[in-house]
Design goal:
31% strand; single chain; alpha+beta; 3 strands
């Protein structure tokens, strides 16, 4: 039995492949996260904070994080 081709699945797989290639060609990766989100998670993956906006939004902090990537 052959499954029907799902265009969204094909688009997702192509996007995932493209992101993997871009990640492999990159030398660094940057992201933003809030204090109520996953800062510790990203730190565990090797990201470091290089900037922050305190009280944005009120009583929270917006963190700018980066990670230097190594080539395999």
């Amino acid at each position: 039995m052959r499954l029907p081709c799902l265009p969204w699945l094909i688009a997702f797989l192509h996007s995932a492949k493209l992101l993997l290639v871009l990640y492999q060609l990159s030398r660094s990766s940057c992201l933003m996260t809030f204090s109520f989100q996953a800062k510790e998670f990203y730190e565990g993956l090797g990201y470091v904070v290089f900037g922050q906006l305190d009280d944005y939004p009120e009583s929270h902090t917006l963190y700018f994080m980066r990670k230097t990537l190594t080539t395999a």
